[in-house]
Every structure is written in C-alpha cells, then in structure tokens.
Fold this protein.
Amino acid sequence: MPQTSPAPAVAPPPGRCPRGPDSRIARFASPATRMLLAGDGLTTVLLQAVLRVPLGIRTDSIEQARASVLGDTEAVSALRVPGRRPCWSRHSRLLTPDGATVSFNRVVAPTARDPRVDAAMADPEQPLGFALNGAGLTTVRQLHGVGRVRWPAGTGRLCAFKTYTLHGPGGVLAFVHERYSPDWFSAAVDAPAG
C-alpha cells in the first residue's frame, strides 16, 4: 500500500485562533443556540442546515442616512465612521417556506467603501452573505456581542442575539445585528453555579 505524507498543517487566519469557549455563549442551555452564536460563517447556511428547509428573505427596509441619525451607536462605533458619513441601514428577516420568521437582521455599512458592499446592501432579493459571496468578496467575522433581548415579533419572549462586524479588503465593511426566533433557538440560560 503506498504511503502518503500527511497534509501540511494550515494555521488559521490571524485573529481566528481558537481560544476555548466564549463564556457569553457557553451560558446558553441549548446546544443549537450555542452553535449558532459561535458560528463564524454564513448564518443563512447554518440556519438552513439546522432547520432543514430553504429560507427566503423579506427585506423590510433599505435606506441611507448619515451615521449620526442612525440611532445605533454600537454600529457607528464599531465601523469607526464620522457622524456626517452616509451609511446604509438594512432591515430584513429570514423566513421558512411557510412564512415563519427565523431571524430579524439589521446591517449598517458605510456607503462607497466597497462597490460590492453597496450592491449587496441595495439588493432586497438576497441575504447579505450570499450577495457578498456572489460578488467575490471574502469576509471574516469578528464577534462583538451575544445575549438575550425581546423577540420583536410581539410575543414578549426573550430571544438570543449576536452582533458582529464583517471585515474584508480595506478594513471593516459592515456591522450586523441578528436576533433568532425562540421557536427554534432557545434563549434559556443555565442557572449560575453557586
């Protein structure tokens, strides 16, 4: 039997080295929720794999406004944009084939930083990650926050959320805030040890 040499080890990109479980994520009781919050690839692909259905998109709004009037200081700070800089603000949701909302998404991106990002932000027909990949833009995600907030569909239940920035050529391209339906991804946390 011929022997083959082992494949060379490939180091992860800078800033993507595993550092052990993030304590903010580890406190969620549901393994599916932890996997979703820890994922650093295309969220839509991960959601489709977990739910085993194709997801559609409904874009609720796409607009441009100066950073100072967006009302999202976390996004503006993460993107490092001055208050007068025009930014995209895109609200969308991912839906099951029967119309149930799986996630609410808000993306903020400076205009005119990369024409591929501008085209993706203005496209109401595709999830942002799909549009960016289709344009040949490779991005890296940097997690900013995870936690629990009220699910915006009016039920009053808590849902899991995460925020992250998308980095590409030239630096930070967009700030993303995703909230996940508690119907599929429980926001329950383990009781604190003590």
In short: The CA atoms of residues 55 and 96 lie 5 Å apart.
